Amino acid sequence: MRKGIVVWIIVVLVVIAGIAIIDAGVKRPINWHKTFNIRDKIPYGLFVFHEELPYILGKHRTYRNFDDTFYEEIARLDSAKKYDVTLIAIDQYPDLDNEDTKKIMRYVEQGGDVFLSALYFEELLMDTLGISSGRLDYVRFQPTDQRVTYTLAKDTNRIKVDKSNDFWIFDKLNAKNCTVLGHLHSRGRALPNFIRVAVGKGNIYLHLQPDVFANYNILQEDKFRYVAKALQVIRYKEILFSDVYYEWEKPRTPLRVVLTQPGFYQAWYLLLIGLFLLLVFKSKREQRAITVIRPEPNLSKDFAKTIGNLYYENGHPGNIIHKKIDYFLFTLRSLYHLETLDILDEKFLKQLASKSGVDPEETKTCMQLLQQYRQHPHHHIDDVKTINNTIEDFKQKAHIL
To answer: How many CA atoms lie within 13 A of 384 on its CB side?
Structure first.
């Protein structure tokens, strides 16, 4: 493995370990966002309320979540002529368009019940019911979460909703069909904030403080009693709870397990960022690998050794001697431009000694030995060594490479 890759791996592992150590020691801030989601365990989720609802209203009832709009869910109930059902929705600002509102009104007229807790309701719903709501007058009442209290009808126990900064009341009611079920108290005034509106055979329950149903408040004993008593108005055995976040939160990717767990999705995005950085740094042009071109090996020595072994094994040293002498004479002809037909000729010997720089007597002795072996009919392997030594000695003295 290349050294650079090893360094990268070590760096990534060190970074991951560092992040894990830092993350383990970090105190996570509390999420005070108001989601009113039945899956959220944060202060303003509805997880506790959703889990406790069967214990509050009794296990003899049936409970089901619906993830469609009010229009679609009520359309199914209408088709089944099922009007003995209570639909519950809790949110800051429920998303009820005109068609939803009309469908709710028709369903309640047939005998169904709807329980809504929110800060604000659509104008069409309020106008249809002949009522209106608004914020508590801040100039007149100067409300805070510690100055405002809440009660239910026929109950003198007051509760405070901590960290609440929105205070809504009903400022107009229709005496013919409205019943006040709860009040907001501020500066000695009791103002309605929880009512029942009779519509045909059914009822619409409107509550203007959804914060009291959130995890943060319902885990407190006095708020839990308030919620339990407020829900006692529900009369039907089948309860449908609006799960408006179901489709929005439902994972649609094969990575849903990773993306829904905080530790997993942090590691996933860290991996993606790391891969991106790796591509950025590795995309820089690098020098192409240079092929090592090795020089052609000199096989002359091996070739000569092979040929020599061949002649030696065949048992013909005379052939080697003649080849050796012929090659030497060819060298003399090429180098000194001399005729080698008669190597014992006085003129030849004199010219060779002069051009080679070898002593004339040594030159003559060498040529006589070569001539002797050329004419000898039988040779021994030792003769090959003698001829070779003689020729090499002459070449060394004549400086022939």
So the answer is: 14
Are 275 and 354 in the same domain? no
The DSSP code sequence of 330-359 is HHHHHHH----S-TT-HHHHHHHHHHH---
Q: Which of 43, 38, 61 is nearest to 232 (CA)?
A: 61
**3-state secondary structure at position 365:** helix
Tell me the residue range of the domain where 265 lies.
3-26+261-282
CATH number for the domain spanning 125: value is 3.40.50
Q: Does this model's pTM top 0.85? A: no
**CA nearest 149: which of 138, 140, 139, 162?**
162
Mean pLDDT, the chain, integer: 86
**Number of structural domains found in the chain:** 3
Residues 6+ apart with CB under 8 A from 299: none
Same domain for 229 and 182:
yes
Please tell me whether residues 338 and 379 are part of one structural domain: yes
Backbone angles phi, psi at 155, to 5 degrees: -140, 120
With respect to residue 304, please indicate whether it lies within any of the assigned structural domains: yes
| Secondary structure class of 136 (helix, strand, coil) | coil
Q: How confident is the model at residue 12 (pLDDT cuts 50, 70, 90)?
A: confident
Tens-place pLDDT, residues 316-332: 777 888 888 888 889 88
CB 202 within 8 A of CB 110: yes
